[in-house]
Design goal:
6-stranded mixed sheet, globular, 3 domains, Rossmann fold, alpha/beta, 14 helices, ABC_transporter-like_CS, single chain, 18 strands, ABCF_ATPase, about 500 residues, 5-stranded parallel sheet
């Protein structure tokens, strides 16, 4: 066991005037299974890169361990998988590779195939297996679930639970609960470390928010009362001061000694009130710094004249004359939210594209209602680049509405001036979701919309769907999201 000490860490990218981290202090144990959470764009991946020594910073990061990073950069994916695993962990024996991938439900023959023939999920699993075979290294795991289907997420979560010594960035609540014993959270005002899984952290965080809200309400009332009292005291002081050079109402002369004594008491009371008011203001300033309030999102749907918008009967997708899924049937009526689930490569995204009108070979029948307007969120974000204003213009989006939605999804206004290519993965995904929310449609088709999206925004999107009940077909592997929004889950 050893410790990683972070002392007075301050960092900003050379092209930015804003610090990502400022005078940050915390320490973590290298035996912990540490879940790393926080809003998109707050610096989670940046912190991992600082541990790896990619950037210069002020302050100190003190540790005796060597760091390794997932995803491991595979330069040539045409190489044999076994060759890549030996590159990652040259001291490991074949039996060790085979043992680790067996824990992850990967067939032994996979390591003797070219790496590019493995599915994205298999690639994730074999790379993780090899990285964990490096003794004495502390693994930095950056969002491994984005290429994992629902079953694979459960398998990898169970695998990680048996390991020690890693930081895991993930926004999948069930996944975190299954494998971490501490949470490192980047909040609005600080970074905190807490024992327990995500659910334990969320309960404590919510309690703290409620406590601070209540304390803030009491302090606001106290400040209001002190201000009123201060005004009264100031009024009394003015009257006393005026009476020094005058007479009392009866016409008799004023006892100036008495007046001076009274004025001194008024002055002392005013000073005491001022001190108490300032203390209350300082206490209030300490509160509510980490409140993560999310504004409610809105959606304008259109009602279609048909009761059933989409009907699939025994649809099976084919590539190179090979069927990739068993015949699938389902119907989409008004208010239905169909979630397609299944292993990677089972045809989920292909069925979405088929409904959207792409030319894909299939058997069976698919029927769409006439005049159906569809809003689509695609899985890939690699095409997003350039200035936001250009993206808005090219897609004919209502700029005011679009930016208002992005603000609700935790975009700072400064982000509107940056190149989209510099956005985080979650911020890019939010661009696509915000575009869909601007579109009035009969049917919303979203393909893995939550990839890279932070937990707060996931909950915000869940609340939107429950409030407006749009008709949707969704491919998404986040189990908590599925359980919250789906009216039916179709397994391929």
């Amino acid at each position: 066991m050893s410790m990683i000490h972070v002392q007075d860490l301050t960092f900003a990218y050379p092209s930015s005037f804003d610090n990502i981290f400022e005078n940050v202090n915390f320490q973590i144990d290298t035996d912990w299974k540490l879940g790393f959470i926080g809003r998109n764009g707050r610096g989670k991946t940046t912190f991992l890169h600082l541990l790896l020594g990619y950037y210069e910073y002020t302050g100190k990061i003190i540790t005796s361990v060597q760091f390794n990073y997932f995803p491991y950069p595979v330069s040539n994916k045409n190489r044999n998988t076994h060759e890549i695993l030996e590159e990652i962990c040259p001291q490991a024996e074949d039996w060790q590779f085979l043992r680790e991938i067996a824990y992850l439900n990967v067939d032994a023959e996979a390591i003797y195939r070219p790496f590019n023939t493995l599915s994205n999920g298999e690639q994730t699993k074999v790379l993780l297996a090899a990285l964990f075979l490096n003794d004495g290294q502390f693994l930095l795991i950056d969002e491994p679930t984005n290429h994992l289907d629902t079953d694979a997420r459960k398998i990898v979560s169970e695998y990680l639970r048996r390991k020690i010594g890693f930081i895991l960035i993930s926004h999948d609540r069930n996944f975190l609960d299954g494998c971490v014993d501490h949470i490192l959270s980047i909040n609005k005002a600080n970074i905190e470390v807490q024992a327990g899984n995500y659910s334990t952290w969320k309960i404590n965080f919510d309690r703290q928010q409620v406590h601070e809200e209540a304390a803030n309400h009491r302090l606001q009332n106290d400040i209001k009362r002190l201000k009123q009292s201060s005004k009264r005291t100031a009024g009394w002081s003015n009257k006393v001061e005026a009476s020094k050079n005058g007479t009392v109402n009866s016409g008799s002369k004023v006892d100036k000694g008495y007046v001076g004594h009274k004025a001194a008491k008024m002055m002392k009371r005013a000073k005491n009130l001022e001190t108490r008011q300032q203390k209350a203001l300082e206490d209030k300033a300490k509160l509510l710094k980490n409140v993560e309030k999310t504004e409610a999102l809105k959606l304008s749907t259109i009602t279609h004249h048909s009761s059933e918008l989409v009907v699939l009967n025994d649809v099976s997708i084919s590539y190179d004359s090979h069927s990739i899924n068993k015949p699938t049937s389902f119907k989409v009526a008004h208010g239905d939210r169909i979630v397609l689930d299944g292993k990677n490569g089972s045809g989920k995204s292909s069925i979405l594209k088929l409904i959207l009108g792409e030319q894909i070979a299939y058997t069976g029948t698919i029927t769409l209602s006439s005049g159906l307007i569809i809003s689509y969120v695609q899985q890939d974000t690699s095409h997003l680049k350039g200035h936001l204003s250009e993206y808005i213009k090219d897609n004919e989006i209502d700029e005011t509405l679009y930016k208002a939605i992005l603000r609700k999804l935790d975009f700072d206004r400064i982000q509107f001036e940056k190149d989209i290519a510099d956005y985080s993965g979650g911020q890019k995904k939010k661009l696509l979701i915000a575009k869909s929310l601007c579109e009035k449609a009969h049917l919303y088709i979203w393909d893995e919309p939550l990839n890279f999206i932070d937990i707060y925004s996931r909950i915000q999107i869940e609340e939107l769907i429950r409030s407006f009940n749009p008709t949707m077909i969704i491919v998404e592997h986040d189990k908590a999201f599925q359980q919250t929004v789906a009216t039916e889950i179709v397994y391929l």
